[in-house]
């Protein structure tokens, strides 16, 4: 990794795609982190090493649709834990609870199976990126509806200008991110 620390190393492998999906947007593409096996291992290890600590160790890992599935399932596997998917509405076949949240234009709904977590379980909630924070806050509410405790929200990237990390922390949820992108 040369002289870079882990965060800078990971940041150097995130691709910025200008004007996608709309003019003026700087899209932070994490797929290069996943394509290189060495970089992917550094990424996963950064999360695994944090959550191996007894004070932060969850009972289960929940991942948000869709890139949170990639990270969350591998982190859960490495920690020897189960994985719970939080899906977009209409994708889960069993009885669900749902939570609707606001987007920039309109709203979206996420769902969780009613037997996905047990009351009192400690859950790590993971996604790839924090923008407005709506998805993570909806995931937290779903898990809490079932009686679980979300011990921390985690993501690779924080886009603090969009206010999501501030909104999430205002709900009392601790947040851990590896890379922050300021500005457009």
From TrEMBL:
Superkingdom is: Bacteria
Q: Annotated Gene Ontology MF terms? A: adenine binding; adenine phosphoribosyltransferase activity; AMP binding
What protein name applies here?
Adenine phosphoribosyltransferase
Report the EC code(s) recorded for this entry.
2.4.2.7
Q: Which organism is it from?
A: Limnohabitans parvus II-B4
Task: Please give the family membership noted in the entry.
Answer: Belongs to the purine/pyrimidine phosphoribosyltransferase family.
Give the record's GO CC terms.
cytoplasm
**Principal location:** cytoplasm
Q: Look up the signal peptide feature and give its range.
A: none
* Compartment(s) of residence: Cytoplasm
């Amino acid at each position: 990794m040369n002289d870079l620390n882990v965060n800078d190393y990971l940041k150097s492998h995130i691709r910025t795609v200008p004007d996608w999906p709309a003019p003026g947007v700087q899209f932070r593409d994490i797929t290069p982190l996943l394509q290189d096996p060495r970089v992917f291992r550094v990424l996963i290890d950064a999360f695994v090493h944090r959550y191996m600590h007894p004070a932060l160790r969850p009972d289960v890992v929940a991942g948000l649709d869709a890139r949170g599935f990639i990270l969350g399932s591998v982190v859960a596997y490495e920690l020897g834990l189960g994985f719970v998917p939080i899906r977009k509405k209409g994708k889960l076949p069993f009885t669900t609870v749902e939570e609707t949240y606001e987007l920039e234009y309109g709203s979206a709904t996420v769902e969780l199976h009613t037997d996905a977590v047990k009351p009192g379980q400690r859950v790590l909630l993971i996604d790839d990126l924090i923008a407005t924070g709506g998805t993570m806050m909806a995931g937290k509410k779903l898990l809490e509806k079932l009686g679980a405790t979300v011990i921390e929200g985690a993501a690779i990237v924080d886009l603090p200008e969009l206010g999501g990390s501030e909104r999430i922390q205002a709900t009392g949820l601790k947040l851990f991110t590896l890379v922050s992108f300021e500005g457009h």
